[in-house]
Amino acid sequence: xxxxxxxxxxxxxxxxxxxxxxxxxxxxxxxxxxxxxxxxxxxxxxxxxxxxxxxxxxxxxxxxxxxxxxxxxxxxxxxxxxxxxxxxxxxxxxxxxxxxxxxxxxxxxxxxxxxxxxxxxxxxxxxxxxxxxxxxxxxxxxxxxxxxxxxxxxxxxxxxxxxxxxxxxxxxxxxxxxxxxxxxxxxxxxxxxxxxxxxxxxxxxxxxxxxxxxxxxxxxxxxxxxxxxxxxxxxxxxxxxxxxxxxxxxxxxxxxxxxxxxxxxxxxxxxxxxxxxxxxxxxxxxxxxxxxxxxxxxxxxxxxxxxxxxxxxxxxxxxxxxxxxxxxxxxxxxxxxxxxxxxxxxxxxxxxxxxxxxxxxxxxxxxxx
Length: 369
Fold this sequence. Notes:
By secondary structure, the protein is of the alpha+beta class. Helices cover 59% and strands 11% of the residues. The protein is built from 12 helices and 7 strands. Strands 1, 4, 5, 6 and 7 form a 5-stranded antiparallel sheet that branches. It has a two-stranded antiparallel ribbon with strand order 2-3. It folds into 3 domains: 24-62 and 339-368; 67-239 and 321-335; 243-318. The radius of gyration is 40 Å and the shape is elongated. The protein has helices spanning 2-12, 23-39, 41-60, 89-96, 113-119, 122-129, 142-149, 179-193, 217-239, 241-274, 281-318, 340-368, and strands at 67-77, 132-135, 138-141, 196-200, 208-214, 321-326, 333-335.
């Protein structure tokens, strides 16, 4: 009976396992924490207030400004050497850049990832910046408008007296750049790399999006609108370079054959007029030779003319087609920087206040003991 009674007493006892806390102990600890906070409330308030002030100052002096994002969605189709208007070569090459296809890398400058790198390359970007654009009814060089409204003078050129009031006097090619022009354009291009973007809209489509995010609304709009025009014109020029060279060669050949044919026909006409009443074998042979030459040159001329027309049609087929799916409209998407410093300051102040109270209570208890 004794063991049974002892087991029952343990079952009915109030002693809890070491890994459990009774509600009474929780209430007691909460009351103790409340007393500690009541004794040191001013420390907690002071720490929070200090963090709030510091965070507010950081937000007030922050260089982050409101940014405006512009985006144009377009589709590149058509073109291609032998595919004609129904060719899907360009679209397939572009799609492979976004993981749609598993084709091997292509050495073509306009295929796959190459096109994206090409669109953001410095020569293409510089052509866009050297355009004269109309903004607010005034003609201005886009690069000068960028310098004035992008914030580059307040950041990258803040401490540079050389570029404090720098601007390009006129549109220039790269061969015309001075040393200062090269330096300024290099800094502008490095900044623009972080502001311009070109990527696929979706992995399942061939649509692409060209975007720009700057601190000025009209600047963002002007950048994407003019850059898509530059890409289209430069792309079309490079993509049809061989065909245009062949077209020039054929055109020169047609002109040359036309001149020779006309001269031969005039010579034959004069020869026939001069020898109407003359019946000589040699004269008849010469006349026949001129007629054969005239007929041969005529067939060659019309053959070359047909080839020239076909080459013009081929040039039209090979030209890539840029189709704007979604244009850019005002007002643009605006992103206002949040007050992160103030919120972080309050949180840090609260943590530091708790730590300070803990240290003060600990040192006070050690001193009493």
